[in-house]
Amino acid sequence: MIKNLLTKFKYIILGIICCGLVVACNGDSIEQTTGSSVRDDNGRISFGTTLKARTLDPADSYDLAGMNLIYNVGESLYTYKLGTTDLVPLLATEMPEVREDGLVYTIPLREGVKFHDGEDFNAEAMAFSLRRFMENGGKPSFLLTDIIEEITATGEHELQITLKQPFSAFPALLAFPGACAVSPDGYSIGQGEFKPNELVGTGPYKLTAFYSDSITLDVFEDYWGEKPANEGVDIQIYAGNSANLYNSFLTGAIDVAYQSFAPEQTLSLLDGAGEGSFKKMEGQGTVISYMSLNRNQPPLDKLEVRQAIASIMNRELIMERVTQGLSEPLYSMIPNAFTVSTPIFQEKYPDNNIELAKELLTGAGFTAQNPAVIEIWYPSTSRPRSGVASTLSAIAAQQLDGLIKFEPQGVESATAFSNLSQGTYQTFLGDWYPDFLDPDNYVHPFLSCANGNESQGCIEGGAQNQGSFFYSERVNELISQARESSDSDARTVAFAQIQTIMAQEVPYIPIWQTKEYAFAQNTIDGVAINPSQTFPFWTISH
C-alpha distances in angstroms, 463 versus 303, 386, 403, 457? Predict the structure, then answer.
């Protein structure tokens, strides 16, 4: 008994020493104490992540780490109700008034809002921020430049935006974190004029320190809305090192951990949460994994072959082997976070329908002596997609009587995405991270075609970029209808028809959608995960 107590005491002391060393060794980071009693006293939250922001400039940030920080420090015209895909006003006071032709949006703005530098927020400041997002040429600038024709301040607190063509999902674009308001006194408009280490917004937190391995956010005392439930957030960055994040959370060095753990670490933490050692939060993910099928490359030019591959798919087996169950099966390219999502692939091609696959392949003229040989390409550094390819190859070898043969092929990521639009690959395994939360962002980038025909497929457009070369004039019409209509029922009908055609023609096969997990110490409350993967700090408290 005494020996066991001494052993436990030894590991407690060792953990305290290790935590002290981690902080002491970070010479360029913010001074911070990791003892839980101190954090309880000062009301601050310590947050750990492996994700490192490339830039904090809203006009150039296009990674999750950067956008998550911008989400907490800046504010856009619209946002999503916490934990949902429902749009609500933020710096706007109401949803926009849309002219009958769908081209002009009039947006009333909040009064009494201040930037972190003390300057007043108004329509001119919002117009400046959106123009800067478009004109400085940052990575996400296309989101607005492709859509917006003109931005005008029509009053002290009224903004008018004219579009190039009707787009009913436009308010969702205005909820993109990078489309936030920034102080005109602190920024300028000009190609490439970015400030990667600064962020002056209107949000509940202000940025007070930004280092390579740590970030400090303090409560903005002049914030117009409800103050955060904590006294500030200290972010520790374990860049790409999930083991350090995992160990720091287990030793109590951080209050909250999110993004990203290895699957085995997540499973271990879920077990610990189940035993009451700490808390876990689960969020509905909107990142999807899928297979793109090139209709221009034999034997995928035969519809029966594409349908056979859809029939072979065994999502439960794939997820068990690849994600260890930390995802959920997906039966539409539109994830089920959206009400318009229909599990059409589950209805048309029930998982592991080997007999249907054999029937389709035989009908298309393939035999054991003349099999359908198909290469499955994927980025070589992606373990999950490598796992999908090898699992499908094994299923074909064991159950399809030699009618089809899959050949997994890894390729360097930059080369892969360069070649994809050139039609190099028969099939390709991809992931899709949405730019904004609307079903359109899972349809238009994959199925739209600006130039094409039935014989050549898509020559220019989303389907060409994604490597399927799918072409359907009817789908183009339905996409336009969904984009132009402000009637939610009409959009629902259009998206339902699009999903039905997609399942019939099989240019893509959805495989799984993510689940998101965060973990918190038992003393912590108010942790939430949004479907967009943004993480609100202001709800968290001791």
Answer: 17, 23, 28, 9
137: left (phi over 0), alpha (psi -120 to 50) or beta: left
Taking residues 200-212, report their average pLDDT: 97
Judge contact between 33 and 40, C-beta under 8 A: no
CA 377 – CA 354 distance, rounded (Å)? 23
- pLDDT of 183 strictly over 70: yes
CB within 8 Å of 494: residues ≥ 6 apart: 478, 479, 481, 482, 485
CATH of the domain at 510: 3.10.105.10
pLDDT in tens, 1-39: 333 333 333 333 334 333 343 333 333 333 333 333 334
Residue 29 is given by DSSP the state: S
Residues 495 and 530 in one domain: no
- Residue of 389, 381, 372, 365 whose CA lies nearest to 416: 381
Question: How far apart are the C-alpha atoms of 60 and 447, rounded to whole Å?
Answer: 27
Q: Which residues contact 166 (CB under 8 A, 6 or more apart)?
A: 101, 102, 103, 483, 484
Do 317 and 465 share a domain, yes or no? yes
388 in Cβ contact with 326 (< 8 Å): no
Dihedral in degrees, nearest 10, Cα atoms 357, 361, 364, 365 = -160
Coil, strand or helix at 170: helix
pTM: predicted TM-score of the whole model, two decimal places: 0.88
Residue 514 neighbours by CB distance under 10 Å: 22
Q: What is the mean pLDDT of the chain?
A: 92
What CATH number is given to the structural domain containing 540?
Answer: 3.40.190.10
Opening angle at CA 46, ends 44 and 48, nearest 5: 160
Nearest to 424 by CA among 462, 375, 373, 457: 375
Q: What are the two backbone dihedrals, phi and then psi, of residue 351, each rounded to the nearest 5 degrees?
A: -55, 140
Q: How many domains does the chain have?
A: 3
- The pLDDT score that the predictor gives to residue 41 is 57
3-class SS of residue 65: helix
The DSSP line for 175-192 is TSGGG----TTT---STT
262 neighbors 510 (Cβ within 8 angstroms): no
